[in-house]
Amino acid sequence: MFRFLCCSFGSSDHRNFSILTGKEVGYFLTAMGALSAVLLLIFKDTILGFVASIQIAANDLVRIGDWVTMEKYGADGDVIEINLSTVKIQNFDKTITTIPTYNLISDSFKNWRGMAESAGRRIKRSILISTPSIRFLESGELENYVKLNEFQPIFQNELLKSIKTIKHQKAISRLPLMVEI
Question: Is the CATH number of domain 61-117 2.30.30.60?
Answer without folding.
Answer: yes
